[in-house]
Design brief:
Strand order of the largest sheet: 9-8-7-13-12-11-10
Radius of gyration: 27 Å
């Protein structure tokens, strides 16, 4: 407990638990306005229903006004009592008016730093800073909202402190690894399963209406088209809207992703935080030779499925060669596409009649690779050091066929490495060997303060040579290119 002096007139002393330091800062002054939108939406929803029933629009206006005032007051109080700043090796955020809460985000657990700019925030010149930490069920202590320049500076300072270098170090330069052309992004959306399904559904309903034209069923026909319209809208927003102007860049503080049409997002994933990568190829993309790359990053796993899809995309669409280059950047020291693979035994055909020949897995010194899928092809790579657990699963049909599957678990997310349908003896060997590889790999995994190690390795020895092998693999590849 820390005690602060009170009024000297009566000689009393006021005590507070862990008071907020004076150097801490508040959020952007426009934060109450942005946070008040939720109350306004609630007012419109409740007041609108009441107005439709009673026909009194005056009451509706008063309801909206009352909720707007309450929202602004609550937002203003929340803004006034929320302050943030660095406290030792953690970012501390104090909040709460009646119930005071102090959250500390350990920088050595930092997995990613995102800057999000919703449409309203872009119009007002503010951003949201989101911190993803290992083991977090959701974004840890998001800072809503900061001025754009303040968000960029704070992100650079967070990454510098987490990397073990001077906190005043300016934002590291970057090299663009890949940009997604707009025409390719549009065509990949048109060739997506959801978009094609929606179009076929609408065309089918339209053709049926032409043959069975009846004015009484017009409303029913139009309403029956709604699922197709929703599917098309979801495809357009999920692929085109979210990934508009997609840029993947590489810098000493990690991999940077910028994307978004209405709501823009800037992600930064520090080195060594990628838990697994999956290369996926839908059936309709095969003729173009396009694939998609998804990643697991600790901290993103606990978000909703909608947010997880938004934050787990490493490349929304790319050629096979472009994706292979990015894979080698993200998984330095390994080429997952060149790893020799062993195939599943013939009894697996009873459980995967159309795809058992594509069931295969392989390992090298850095990753375990799993391949599967016929219509929708998948190739998954998980670094040994990121293996959380290895388990053997055997269902009732597998027991009758003498088969078992090995699950190589990482943090929850879109990347799922399952070595399916192996002989039980082979499955036990795979599990034991993978557990040993993971144990050995963790001993040499990237440390928490990665740039501190790099500087130690690069420090000159008395003989004039650098001590160590130089910068991390991603940086050395950039210099060679």
């Amino acid at each position: 407990m820390t005690t602060t002096p009170g009024s000297e007139a009566d000689g009393s002393k006021a005590a507070r638990v862990d008071p907020t330091p004076e150097h801490f800062r508040r959020l952007h002054p426009l934060t109450p306005l942005l946070r008040g939108w939720g109350f306004l939406a609630l007012a419109i929803g409740i007041g609108g229903q009441d107005a439709l029933r009673s026909g009194e629009m005056g009451r509706f206006g008063l309801t909206v006004l009352a909720f707007a005032v309450v929202g602004m007051i609550v937002g203003l109080l929340s803004w006034w009592f929320t302050r943030y700043g660095f406290d030792g090796d953690a970012l501390r955020i104090d909040s709460g008016m009646l119930n005071r809460r102090s959250r500390r985000v350990r920088l050595d657990r930092l997995q990613a730093v995102d800057i999000n700019r919703p449409l309203a925030g872009r119009l007002l010149g503010v951003s949201e800073l989101r911190l993803e930490v290992a083991g977090g069920g959701k974004a840890e202590a998001p800072l809503q909202y900061l001025a754009v320049d303040d968000a960029v500076r704070l992100r650079a300072e967070l990454l510098a402190r987490a990397a073990g270098i001077d906190a005043d170090t300016p934002e590291a330069p970057e090299r663009v690894v890949h940009q997604v052309p707009l025409d390719r992004l549009v065509w990949s959306t048109v060739l997506s399963g959801a978009f094609v399904t929606g179009v076929v559904f609408i065309l089918g309903i339209g053709v049926a209406f032409l043959f069975f034209r009846d004015s009484q069923v017009t409303v029913g026909v139009l309403s029956s088209m709604l699922p197709g319209v929703i599917a098309i809208g979801a495809a357009l927003w999920g692929q085109l809207g979210r990934n508009f102007a997609f840029v993947l860049a590489e810098s000493p503080d990690g991999y940077r992703i910028r994307k978004g049409l209405l709501d823009t997002q800037h992600q930064t994933v520090p080195p060594g935080r990628v838990q697994g990568v999956a290369m996926r190829q839908p059936l309709l993309w095969r003729g173009k030779g396009w694939v998609r790359l998804d990643v697991d990053v600790a901290g993103y796993s606990g978000e909703s499925s909608d947010d997880s899809q938004r934050t787990s995309t490493l490349l929304p669409v790319a050629t096979y060669e472009e994706a292979a280059e990015v894979l080698r950047h993200v998984l330095p020291g390994s080429d997952p596409l060149s790893v020799p693979l062993t195939h599943a035994p013939r009894p697996a055909r009873w459980l995967r009649p159309f795809g058992w020949k594509r069931l295969a897995y392989g390992v090298d010194g850095q990753v375990v690779v799993v391949r599967e899928g016929v219509l929708y092809r998948n190739l998954t790579a998980v670094p040994h050091a990121k293996t959380q657990s290895v388990r053997i699963v055997q269902g009732p049909l597998q027991r009758r066929l003498g088969l078992a599957s090995v699950h190589v678990d990482t943090t929850p997310g879109p990347v799922d490495a399952v070595i399916a349908h192996r002989r039980p003896a082979e499955a036990r060997v795979i599990a034991e060997e993978q557990a040993e590889r993971a144990r050995l790999a963790r001993k040499t995994d990237v440390p928490e303060q990665w740039m501190a190690r790099y500087r130690q390795q690069s420090a000159p020895r008395p003989d004039g040579h650098a001590d160590g092998d130089g910068p991390p693999a991603a940086s050395s590849e950039r210099d060679q290119e």
